[in-house]
Amino acid sequence: MRANSTIVELPVRPPAGRAFTLIELLVIIAIITILAALLLPALAVAKSEGTRVQCVSNQRQMTTAWSMYAGDSREVLVLNGGDANQTSAQAHLWVFGGNHGDPPTLTNVQYLIGPAYALLVGNQPSAKLYKCPGDVSTWYVGDTGTKAPELRSYSMNSYIAATGTNLLQPLAQTPGYRVYTKWSQLAADSPANRFVFMDVNPASICTPGFGVDMMAEEFIHYPSDLHRNRGVVSFADGHVETHKWLDHRTTIGLPPGSEYIPHDVASPGNQDLVWIAQRTSSRQ
Hints:
The chain has five helices and nine strands; from the N terminus they run H-H-H-E-E-E-H-E-E-E-E-E-E-H. By secondary structure, the protein is of the alpha+beta class. The chain has one domain (22-278). The strands form three sheets. A five-stranded mixed β-sheet has the order 5-3-4-7-8, with helices on one face. It has a two-stranded antiparallel sheet with strand order 1-2. The longest helix has 51 residues, at 22-72. The radius of gyration is 28 Å and the shape is elongated.
């Protein structure tokens, strides 16, 4: 009888892994670069769309608060304009704010929601709603060289409830055009075509009122173009639009060496100026 033989199996050594060649690595890097180039613009568009949606929501809520104020005040619209006395703590406008050159009026949250300064605070208690999420601008405050974020991105149609001493320059209204002080006046003059709040160019934000000259072909204030050359505008009937600016002069940048865009910039034949004026007021 034969003895059982033991068979010893040696471990099988796996074949050595095949390394990438230099050419293959370069091809992979090129593919990743191409994919990143394709994806980044899409991500930027998605981010821009998100800020636009939030800006629309902000203005919708602001216009609701504006309308509620009139409902609580026997149709009298909340006062608008600019502040000649920039140290006043008497609430007399929807928000407190002076002209260019006074950054504290754009960086102090109390000027937006402080009862001593803002009339709309009872219907609009959140300061976040006054800020477009696409607006990341800052202002130097004081003599320390420090910067603070700009807190307000929106201004109100200067032909709505801006009268008398509230007409701080450059908000002079064009003679012969309606100025609305009561809701019934707006309701009788195509409220779907009368803007209330405008998303303003961060370098042009100024008084609480958005200035429009109904006759001159010039910008008093510039609308915002932060949403891919588009601005957000709310109307007296409560709807909000995203409007694309068609003239390249409307999307002006900050002049070199300046902190803000000057007023009364001529722009003859600008169809965007026509669009804004048609939605500002009408002849008496």
